[in-house]
From TrEMBL:
Pfam families: ABM. The keyword Oxidoreductase applies. This is Antibiotic biosynthesis monooxygenase. It comes from Paenibacillus profundus. Residues 28-84 form the ABM domain. Keywords: Monooxygenase, Oxidoreductase. Signal peptide: none annotated. InterPro entries: ABM_dom (IPR007138), Dimeric_a/b-barrel (IPR011008), Jasmonate_Hydroxylase-like (IPR052936).
Length: 108
């Protein structure tokens, strides 16, 4: 997915994943694509936005409920990716979950 996600009217939830990578791909790119595809098939998934420069990556996924977020975190394939992330792909990361109560946008 690319671009800005069109989300429904609030409330909904955002999972903000901020990370710093280790050097080299080590299979990260392929797994990231697989996880995005798998997440998009999960009940409650609303979309994802992601950006990365040389040092910092930020991925925000949007969900309709805390239950949907919990189910995604516990997904078996996602758990494998989480463990590989800790062992191989990230020097550090942070996950924040926020309730979106208001949203607006501009488009030409």
């Amino acid at each position: 997915m690319s671009g800005i996600v069109k989300t429904p009217q609030p409330p909904y939830y955002a999972v903000i994943f901020t990370s710093q990578r280790t050097d080299g791909d080590k299979g990260y790119g392929k797994m990231a694509e697989k996880m995005e595809e798998l997440a998009s098939q999960q009940k409650g998934f609303l979309g994802v936005e992601s950006a990365r420069d040389n040092e910092l990556g930020i991925t925000v996924s949007y969900w309709d409920s805390l239950e949907a977020i919990k189910n995604w975190k516990e997904n078996s394939a996602h758990k494998v990716a989480q463990e590989k992330g800790k062992a191989e792909w990230y020097t550090n990361y942070s996950v924040r979950i926020a309730k979106v109560e208001r949203a607006y946008s501009f488009e030409t």
